[in-house]
């Protein structure tokens, strides 16, 4: 319980610090949303009136406290770009898309990388191991956005397995949305699959020479059973921490990949908001991304404790 409370406190402090930095950064960067909305020819009186309407004439600290208190209640203000539409409504509309894409990418990574990593470790030095190693090296070197463009060209334009740009929201057609997201999920997952395979292979190989493995073999267990029942649990301890980093990268890559596949998720909303200086949306999305990454790391820390009881002892 003490371990969980400590991690919970760290989570809250991290979110608070990120909110302060984010709000402060958007308060001091060059540019004026009032001039952006009214145009360069706007009179100082009109600019001052709009700044007062938006609350931009108030001190930064005062605006931050109000924003933080409202954000805790789920109110991130109103969008500048979408004519006063609540930012929370825009986020709730786009969050399911990015959540589905992230979940599909993570499932692909776990389902493919764990068996492949075990296979490469079991066949160490063989043709299979060499082929897997070569494949992972090549795949890791390809950025997700470039993979997205290749997948769009091959499977969208050539094979016509899907129609690029014809994304449908899950509220309209959940099945159609999931089918469309298979391709961006593959683009995000492939480089991460290669990383996890390589990391898991090395972790398994570091375990197979230990005494408990020889004991398991001496009891007549088959090699496959030894790997899955004995080696995998210990080998997964460092891999679990690595997967937390991978999940954070999945969320970051989804921002770019959503642009490539014209997916109306949080990432695309963020890019549009940045280009239009819609700071309430940008601040809310940054906090969403931070909260997602911190929460995932919190879950991974708890899972790490379950897998390795020595953490609880420490």
UniProtKB/TrEMBL annotation:
<keyword id="KW-0813">Transport</keyword>
<dbReference type="GO" id="GO:0071916">
    <property type="term" value="F:dipeptide transmembrane transporter activity"/>
</dbReference>
<keyword id="KW-0472">Membrane</keyword>
<feature type="transmembrane region" description="Helical">
    <location>
        <begin position="97"/>
        <end position="120"/>
    </location>
</feature>
<feature type="transmembrane region" description="Helical">
    <location>
        <begin position="235"/>
        <end position="261"/>
    </location>
</feature>
<dbReference type="GO" id="GO:0005886">
    <property type="term" value="C:plasma membrane"/>
</dbReference>
<comment type="similarity">
    <text>Belongs to the binding-protein-dependent transport system permease family.</text>
</comment>
<keyword id="KW-1133">Transmembrane helix</keyword>
<dbReference type="InterPro" id="IPR035906">
    <property type="entry name" value="MetI-like_sf"/>
</dbReference>
<dbReference type="Pfam" id="PF19300">
    <property type="entry name" value="BPD_transp_1_N"/>
</dbReference>
<feature type="transmembrane region" description="Helical">
    <location>
        <begin position="132"/>
        <end position="158"/>
    </location>
</feature>
<protein>
    <submittedName>
        <fullName>ABC transporter permease</fullName>
    </submittedName>
</protein>
<dbReference type="InterPro" id="IPR045621">
    <property type="entry name" value="BPD_transp_1_N"/>
</dbReference>
<feature type="domain" description="ABC transmembrane type-1">
    <location>
        <begin position="95"/>
        <end position="300"/>
    </location>
</feature>
<feature type="transmembrane region" description="Helical">
    <location>
        <begin position="9"/>
        <end position="29"/>
    </location>
</feature>
<keyword id="KW-0812">Transmembrane</keyword>
<dbReference type="InterPro" id="IPR000515">
    <property type="entry name" value="MetI-like"/>
</dbReference>
<dbReference type="Pfam" id="PF00528">
    <property type="entry name" value="BPD_transp_1"/>
</dbReference>
<keyword id="KW-1003">Cell membrane</keyword>
<feature type="transmembrane region" description="Helical">
    <location>
        <begin position="178"/>
        <end position="200"/>
    </location>
</feature>
<feature type="transmembrane region" description="Helical">
    <location>
        <begin position="281"/>
        <end position="304"/>
    </location>
</feature>
